[in-house]
Amino acid sequence: MCQSNLFIDIGNTAVKWLSNGQYQSVLVSEFSLALLPKADKVFVSCVGDKSLLQGLGGVVFVESQAQFKNFICGYQNPTELGVDRFLAMIATIDQYPNQTRLIIDSGSALTFDLVLSDGTHQGGLIMPGLGKLRHSFKVFSSDSKQLNTQQLADNTQDAWALGTSQMFIAAINTQIEYHLDKFGDLVIVLTGGDAKILSLRLNHALKLQPNLVLKGLLYYAQTLTE
Prior knowledge:
single chain; alpha/beta; Nucleotidyltransferase, domain 5
């Protein structure tokens, strides 16, 4: 009898899952086990609250590895690497073989990881995500997800929105342009909760992959049966 698998990505803001080729997502505050389909085995990427799955059977919490197939982690201590980043990287190795990849994850944190064409991870960067950036000063705190490229504002609210937009986009463009100069065949992969709106503001060819971590989980699980 064929076992059914469920793949879950628990972040700091949202819980996503993949079952029978269908992707679902809810905010962490709205999540309950009753939303999940039945499965024999559950593969989980968790950088958030593991207790959300308390009581669920057949759960495997995946962890970052120093080496996985031809992926070689660039961290001195691979256990420090977030499992979401690990899974995103092995997914891109599977999807874009023999190409150098810059993986940008725009979620609660903004992360960058460079993986060479041979699968060697060169390391990465971690910055505040858009939400964290916009709440970094209490007096200016904003829940806005808008990314505006207008230059100047004539009021404090818009000045904060425009300033944080330009800071956020400039940081990303700087990394993209640096790595494009160094690696002409670079594949830029964009994922995370803010990926879609961000993709509309970046003037570079990129691969938009909002469910990249789940695809990494699926690939990880498939390799266990090979």
